[in-house]
Amino acid sequence: MAFDIASGTMSWGLSVRMATLRPSAGDFCLLHGFKLQLDETIQQTPLDNGISALEAFTHYLKELHEFAMLESLRGSLKNCEPSHIQYVLTVPARWSDAAKNKMRGAAINAGLIKEDDPPSRLNLIVEPEAAALYCERNCERFDLNHGDQFLVCEAGNEAVDLTVFEIAVTAAGRRLSKVTNGHGASCGSDVLDRHMQRFLEEIFGCIAANFPANIIPKLVDTFAHDIKSQFDGLEDQFLRLPAHRCFDDLEDPEAFGIDDGYLFLTAAELKENVFEPVTKDVLSLIQEQLTQTEDCAAIFLVGDFTSFNYLYSRVKQQFSSQISQISIPPRPDLAVVHGAVCAGLNLYFGHHKLPLLVTHMLYYHPELPNSANPNLPKLSRNSGDAFNLSEEELIARQVAILQAQHQLDIEKLMIEHHLQLRKLKG
């Protein structure tokens, strides 16, 4: 997101990228990492211009929700009552309950739900657990069986979260249980961009201060689109320079490695200054998880960052001697989203073909578990007891909650859901 200093407005999506590449880029404050900063226990750089993380995230969620609703209501959801839409939001593994409560408040202020809606309209799932559901659905292609353990490394733009899971095959189907407590750090792919920006500023030194405000962001943007994901640590790179007189006016372009409109960057200096510092953090996180389990059969890399050639090659190099299977599932960038949808379907419709994995927080509401509402069945927010419930017990627990709230017509929702599935299947 970007904050327009002059107008006091915020923009998101493609408009942010365009704003930072214009000559007027200096009029904008680029906001990033604000979702992570909802958890006050995570050390983050403060946002520019005094904007709070909650304000930035609420605005982003509002814009994203309005866009999603506009697109969805044009298609399969055009006849759906908004009150029947239930949401599953993903959260980092290390988030506190206070941070999850802030997300609920942001969802209310962004218009996803209302304050007096039943807690079941908003569900939270931890990101590695959502990714684990997605990976579990691909078990056959990865040859994972009863008792096998696998590590999910969910590496996105800002953060990396990891957890080890174990598969149990029962008469009711496959189930997942957690072996380790999830943890993570702020070492996602966007951190590479910040390292690249500092590296470019070092290359050009004091001259960079005379560049227009959009020049360095343009170089970083070109790096992100042309080099970042493809870099393998072996090939030297040529960074295309934007057409601007600031480069033409350099007295000795070759001293900076500039030739014919390109900046020459060796593989060694890119590794040392940009890629390796971030990659080492990810490798350290993986090692921490593996030391907590004796027999891990596979590592699944999901999220945008894990599809980058350099990170994948370093993980293989570091761990292939002890882990027989290190894989990137299909569409790793969508693994968390797909897994979150699976979790939502499991919770509400008892879809028997889907595995059941329930996060610590089935429904997140500050009043659950039910100390303030004796009519609701007990739910544990802080333990993993829900992971090992039988399918029948889990469904019974969910139905009991919904019936106690007198808010939702379960049968109607199930019928609508199955009709939608039938339409999708053609």
UniProtKB/TrEMBL annotation:
Domain of life: Eukaryota
SUPFAM superfamilies cross-referenced by the UniProt entry: Actin-like ATPase domain
Designated name of the protein: Uncharacterized protein
Species, as recorded: Dissophora globulifera
